[in-house]
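alcohol dehydrogenase (NADP(+))
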Amino acid sequence: MRTVDAYAATSATEPLIKTTIERRDVGAKDVRIDIAYAGICHSDIHTVKEEWGQVTYPLVVGHEIVGVVAEVGSEVTKHAVGDRVGVGCMVNSCRKCENCLAGEENYCLEGNVGTYGAVDRDGTITQGGYSTEVVVDEDFVLRVPESIPYEAAAPLLCAGITTYSPLHHWNVGEGTKVAVVGMGGLGHMAVKIAVAMGAEVTVLSQTLAKQDDSLRYGAKAHFATKDEATFETLARTFDVIINTVSAKLPIDAYLGLLRRNGSLVNVGAPAEPLSLNVFNLLGGRRSFSGSMIGGIRETQEMLDFCAEHGIAPEIELIEAARVNEAYERVLSSDVRYRFVIDAATI
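Predicted structure tokens:
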């Protein structure tokens, strides 16, 4: 076991504190990574506040991780010391169910092992990326292309794949009209990726405050959802709507924006249930769906796609000691568009 520095939550109400945690010894198939950067995802905040369920404290969160391979096990073939790599939202799965065998470990029928807050293969609770090191099975370690700016790469491991996966699955491309609901950490990545896929993109945000950003990232239009006229103007317009908002929204209103055969896909994960009128599905053979990250194969595909198209998240790099301030700013939507912790400051 190795003792490493980290920032951990000790309860649902107290600030995160600097502490130490134990990392397992490197096994035959393991990779030990010196963490360089860790993104702050809204999921981290939901988790530490127990908004998605009970938590075992102390807990180190963070599932947007990039770093350098420092040590490999005797049977590792996919990565070598010195490689620039990443770790996303999961670190293991059953490897044998139909979903895992299809390369979609994110939908493992036995439940994938989350990067933090899950029961690891040794029976301990997984601890995430707000730390200086992590040990991960080589099959769940990604190659990070050199052309992606190092400090900006981490959010791709959650925000990037969470938006790429549904856009890819619903065949977004030339001639597709896409709306992105919410212009935050997930939303701005959805815009950049959908534009690179060839879609015509519209941003639906509460106000026009981020309109300039939307247009700069390639969107054709930006509408304020606080303006009721928006839902009349855009009725029956879109083939795909990606909802990135982790809050309760009037789903029926957004379903009305879909064309025949259109799909509204939820990637945001609100703590409270959503409701809808089924007749808003029947009338246009519309679909309301959900999507959660992606498998390892698709995540690597996303990283390579972003490298090819020059896509990177917009970030604000912070010292680890500012993590609690960053949480408050995320909750007040005061970040454009992802905080990233410099792990050298932990």
